[in-house]
Amino acid sequence: PPPPPAEPPAAPAPAGGPTPQPRTPAGRGTIADGAAAGTVAAACRGALLALRDRVARLQVDVYSDEPWPPDATDAVHALDELRRARRGRLARRFGWEPPISLELDPRDDRELDLALAVAPFTICGSGFDEDGTLLWDVNDTGTSVSFLLLPHELDAVRSHTARSGGRPEDVVVLGDRRG
């Protein structure tokens, strides 16, 4: 028999660095229509926890279209204090109210906990990576949500949802995208 074909030579590494690796596919996740409120809350929180290391900018609106639930009111009061404390000097001088949106640091445990507390109930919460890609998007009191998740992050969201008493199968992937 003829010898097997020779392996093609490996491409040389670019000057100054290793060969780029293919990117891991990220899927756009959301929550199934008709999911129970507990599943929605757990998935919104689980997604932020799973994405924490990739979220560079985190923003939440301290506003809800419904009354804040009792388990979120302490966080709402703390977020209101932060909004007022972060107002600019001119706004304080003229007594202007702070905007409803608040930038939080996802690396700060306290600020992350505040975002987690209001995530399922806010009219808008967003988490962006270093390139400005929207990774975590929760809106309209949990009725419109999406997450750009790597496979291990999707597993973490589903696990968190199950541990919190929700239905992990209600966390669904809409399509793939290179992440």
Topology order in helix (H) and strand (E) letters: EHEHHEHEEEHE
Count of helical segments?
5
| Overall outline | globular
Rg is 21 Å
Which strand order does the major sheet show? 3-2-4-5-6-1-7
**Amino-to-carboxy terminus distance:** 45 Å
Q: What is the average of the pLDDT values?
A: 86
Main β-sheet description: 7 strands, antiparallel
Which runs of at least 5 residues are low in confidence (pLDDT < 50)? Answer: 2-13
Strand content: 15-25%
Q: How many beta-strand runs? A: 7
- Specify the helix fraction band: 25-40%
Q: Which class best fits the helix and strand makeup?
A: alpha+beta
How do the helices and strands line up, and which of them pair or pack?
Blueprint: E1 25-31, H1 37-51, E2 57-61, H2 70-85, H3 89-94, E3 101-104, H4 109-118, E4 124-128, E5 134-139, E6 144-149, H5 151-163, E7 171-178
Helix pairs in contact: 1-5, 2-4
